[in-house]
């Protein structure tokens, strides 16, 4: 998430904002379909082949973005070390979440994934040297109370397993912080390409560990899943390039609706009341953190202009 908003005079026209909303909404649906395929195929073939397919075939729709400014320019970077760490934590976070999807209800994994803004807020203090006030800290606490409602420590085996997607969210928050650092000097397509390429390379190296030959139909689904992820990533990037974060971020929480529908239709899973209540707290917390980041960012910008 960005930490500031452009002034009203610099906001894009309504048509551009409408297009961006359509893009982010479509991307969220595509990511939801991809997640269903990740869970379905991961339960059959394991995490590694699904992880490889998600990363490798996603490169296909990302390549046109790379070609816009020339492939050599898109690959050029002055911060290879930062890319390495971002890729490491990003790969770890994705792999953990893919594994979590194979052992936990879809809605629970998606809901716990919404804790990324809370981890990002907490980690921005030591890693970005940002100041976080009592309001954002309060929102973080409320969000983690929501996590406790979902996890309910001590109530069944799923309580301990819920620590797995929570670890994935922590890794994704670290990756997001490093993306913020990279975004100061790097093109978005460069960041996406290096992440996807490193993910595919690592998964390819590990494929013999968990190899199971897919049927022709499942192979088609693996390719389709990766392409969906790549197209959704392009849509997501394009949307946030053309409209304010405050307008688009709430639409990403519609992922929970698609997760509930898919979980019920495909696996006959319905989230518990505990999951519903916890998700509500997490979403409200995330939206308030976003609101405070925008307010604080605007205040800092005015102070610099003064």
How does this structure look, described?
With 306 residues, the protein is mostly helical. It has one domain. The protein is built from 14 helices and no strands. The radius of gyration is 19 Å and the shape is globular.
Short description:
The chain is mostly helical. The protein has helices spanning 14-45, 47-67, 71-75, 80-103, 106-113, 116-128, 134-151, 157-161, 163-183, 188-206, 216-242, 245-252, 255-267, 273-305.
Number of separate structural domains: 1
User: Please, what is the average pLDDT?
Assistant: 86
Mass-distribution shape: globular
Counted by DSSP, the helix tally is 14
Q: Using the CA coordinates, give the radius of gyration.
A: 19 Å
- Written as H for each helix and E for each strand, in order along the chain, the element string is HHHHHHHHHHHHHH
Q: What does the largest sheet look like?
A: none
How far is the first residue's CA from the last residue's CA? 26 Å
Q: What fraction, in percent, of the residue positions are helical?
A: over 70%
List low-pLDDT spans.
1-11
**DSSP, total strands:** 0
Strand content: under 5%
Which structural class matches the secondary elements?
mainly alpha
Describe the secondary-structure layout.
Blueprint: H1 14-45, H2 47-67, H3 71-75, H4 80-103, H5 106-113, H6 116-128, H7 134-151, H8 157-161, H9 163-183, H10 188-206, H11 216-242, H12 245-252, H13 255-267, H14 273-305
